[in-house]
User: Fold this.
Amino acid sequence: MFTGIITGTGTILEVRPLGESAAHGALLRVQAPAGYLEGATLGDSIAINGACMTVTALPGGDVFEVQVSAESLACTCGLGAAGPVNLEKALRATDRHGGHIVTGHVDAVARVTRFEPVGESHALHILAPAALGRYLARKGSVAINGVSLTINAVQDTADGCEIAINLIAHTVQHTTLHTLRAGASVNLEIDLIARYVERMSAAAA
Assistant:
């Protein structure tokens, strides 16, 4: 379980295939910030760009390794190549819950339609698949590449469901979201509560 409050940005140093066929996943070697892995042990959960992964090796030097299944690679973006990533360690029972409930289970890969400065902030627009539109609401929560964000507006379109988000300068500076551009792909996770409300409403109908 996570909160969507990014606790560090790291870098995927290496992506190593675990086999020769499409059924095989990959091993990721990730460089974390200095001291980030203090107290970390094998089997710990760390969200990488919003996708929950299990630490399988701690070779030292603030580096950790995870194994990503072929299914996870197919259902996410940003994990198949070297580059910067958002990191969040799993929530402890005594931690502050500053964001919203995030599971680290990516629901869809969505597309950035707008990312540009507006005053001291940035406007971020994301086009999500139409099937997820029922879970996205004005002033509701969504996780984009693992970052807990508040939706300012929702517009259903012929191509899907477009959400508008305002990013404050702190979020832009302390996550990898500053690298986004129109046309970029992002990992999207809907709000867990919205998921259960929809399921219970359907059962009661």
In short: The chain has two domains: 8-89, 108-204. The helical segments are 70-75, 169-174, 192-204. Residues 108-204 form a domain with the Elongation Factor Tu (Ef-tu); domain 3 fold (CATH 2.40.30.20). The longest helix spans residues 192-204.
